[in-house]
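Do me a favour: review this protein, sequence plus structure tokens, and tell me how the chain folds. Record follows.
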Amino acid sequence: MFNFKTLKLTKRCDSESTNSFVGIRRNEKGEVEFRLPHGFDDFPEDDFEATKELFFKMYRTFQKFERDNWRQNILDTRPTGKDQIQKEKDGYRFKNKEDNDVVLYSKIALIENLLDVYRDLALDQMERRIGADEKVDYSKIDRYLDRAIYLPNDVIYIDKMDLPRQTLRYESTTLIDLFCFIVSELQNELEEDIEPRVQELAHRFSEQHLSHEESLFNEETFETTIRTLKGVLDDIDKRTAYKDEDYWRLYEAIETFLYGELDMDNPHEDGTFWGISNFSSVWEDMCATWAFRDFNNGVNSILYADTNIVFNSRHVSNSKSAGYFSIYKKEDFDDPFFIEFRFPNYKKRWMRPDLVFQDLNYTVIFDWKYMDKSCFIDHNEKIQRDITKQLCYELTLQKVKPTAVVKNQFVIPNFGRNEFLDGVHERLQKNCLRVFKADFSAIQQIYLTHD
């Protein structure tokens, strides 16, 4: 398991590219780096707790994104010349709504293997099968009288009987305790419920082998705890005579966790170990989830959203744009986002803004942008095109809502707080287009709690 204290943080992002990698990989110098999202310029350096919290939240975010996209792949009827999702060795590749390639490496073997074993094996059955057998066969007790200890009142004590049995020695029950200790530590960081029996066995292991303060994910005790766990695992393996299939599954999962890093010996050709090649797809889903929680209530109402996120266990889409793009549209909202051309046989070219909502006073068109703030200050060709698109959305919207006060916003990620970006490019100011720096952590928490 890697140490969050020594994990190199990288805040560099190519501000000209929307295809930015977020995750952990090896850099040009061969160092393992944690590449942070856009907007994380103020993320604290050398902060064990902050780095650990971000890692596990990103881990959960990628898991949810993967689950949701697999669900969408099953439901999607969009015509395509190839499969929407292609399985990779440690993740998968798919096309996002802009038809760009997205590669998600969501598997970390040292964590996934352990949790897979936990989900696959029934803990109670495993305990009974590999636990020590203390049963006494009284029909054969006469064969062991020479080993008996004679006590007062004609009582004899026999320490053990050499009976054939397909069970592991006591040391293997310690293997289960060690396994449960690691699982409970991981589930605690992943904010998952921990089974009472797992907690019980984890506590037993901790009481027998660790001091009160020692933990896997504590900055001060990480290294000593890992050393202790490695020592216990080695001792178990040396003392255990009978090793069945379940033993090896437990042992190998624990060994990978304790000794593994991030598949450093078998890197992918592009150097990716864990993360996503195009984080903009994740950012859009995060923002859409935030919008459906905060902008769709009695006062505010979402009119249109170019998304099919899973929100509170359901896909939000209820309509199709251009015949096959899954979108959300309010029942009484007449979709105006198209341009007619080819007179006199008019045809429609459909457009899809990210989100449109209205309240009592106006109608905040949102465009989710996973980009650096500098793109909106300096001259950037992509932003110039995006401005034109936003103005088209505004123009077509005012056809159906001629008296509405329309506000246009780009939403970009920001670490730690919500605020508007000052000093934006002249064309943004001229067309009253604002750039909102949204609190990444707050939006991420909403995304993770509305599965």
User: Anything to note?
Assistant: The chain has eleven helices and 21 strands. Residues 280-449 form one domain.
